[in-house]
Each structure stands twice: as C-alpha cells, then as structure tokens.
Structure of Aspartate/glutamate racemase family protein:
Amino acid sequence: MKTIGLIGGMSWESTAVYYRLLNEQVRERLGGLHSAKCIVYSVDFAQIERLQTAGRWDEAGDVLADAARSLQAAGADLLLICTNTMHKVADQVAAAVGIPLLHLADASAAAVRTAGLRRVGLLGTAFTMEQDFYRDRLAGHGLTVLVPDVDDRAVVHKVIYEELCLGIVREESRAAYAEVISRLVASGAQGIILGCTEIELLIGPEHSPVPVFATTRLHAEAAVTAALAPGQ
C-alpha cells in the first residue's frame, strides 16, 4: 500500500471527512483491520483565506507547495489537496514535488462521465464557481458546466465560509441550497457537482432531484485506488 499525503486544513472539518473516508475505503477493499497509510499536513486556514481574499494566489501556492515538499520528505507516495478551491494552484504544488498529485476535478469528471452525464451544475466557493481553473478542467473532460446566478453564488459562498467551515449546519441553509440546485436543474443540469469539500456536510443525494457528485468521497476513492494499485 502506498502512503497518501494529504494537504488539509482548508477547512479541517472536511479534512476530517477525508481521513474517515480513506480508512473506510481501505477497510472495505482489504477487510479485517486494514486502514489507510496516510500523512496529513494541516495548514492554518485563516492564513490561506486571507491570501484568497486578497488575490495573492502565488503566495497561497507557496504555502501549499511547502506542505507538499514536507509530505514527500515524510514518505508520501502521492498527494491530495483536500479542497476544491486551492486546486487553482495545483500546477504550482505539483511542480514542487516528484510524486503524483491526484487532481480533484479529474476524479469528479470521471464519475460524471461514468454516470453517462455531460451537463452538470457546479456548486462551490465563489472562486471555484466564477474563475476558470476548475470549470475549464471539467470542460476538458467533455462536460458542459453550469453555475448559479450571481445572487445564488453569493448565498452558496457565504454558507461555506460563515457556517460549514466552522462546523455549523443549518436547515435553513440546506433549504437555500436545495433551491439553488432546483434552479440549476431547471436550466438543464443533469447532475450537481458538490465542488467544495464542505458542502457534503450539508447536502446529500436526498436533497437533489438529479444525481449529486460528492467530490470529497470521489477524491478519497481515487486516492485509495491509486494507493492499492500494483507497481510504482
């Protein structure tokens, strides 16, 4: 089994879910007392959030690149960035190390295509919904990506940073997200990508009339598959 390196803490609420999912996946596939070989580097999210808001992405990328180098030095064989938004600096992080970085959008797109869908709605932070880095990666897999309108994007972003990243789950916010999803479906979305690792704390399949693609789970499953694959 290869060792999975996790760049986490963005936020730690979802990093904890990653840890649980990795171990559940390994136990499910190998049985018995097997658990995942993994190393976690958890950053201070307050620092990252300040850099995001200021648009200082290169500096944020430096922080994550340092984390990646530390994980490689500690023995990680592959890397995960445990947040959709910070995949904006994925290339910068990948260039800092000599081990593979498993891109979250690739795992999500593969699941959408396996389901036979091509037109998806994307929920996430404002950075993920409004900038090209994530949508273009999905489009590169042949997907058409829809995002909420400006007011709905503001609601989705606010709930992530002011509630979910703090471990707060409110029924009112779940209802608001369900309305956003309904509007995306009305616009033609055949499925919904939960493109922020915290959203899975709030939204599940039962809250959407079309399939939802839980990026944290999909990323964890891809990591375990890579960790258990034979060869280098």
In short: Residues 105-215 form a domain with the Rossmann fold fold (CATH 3.40.50.1860).
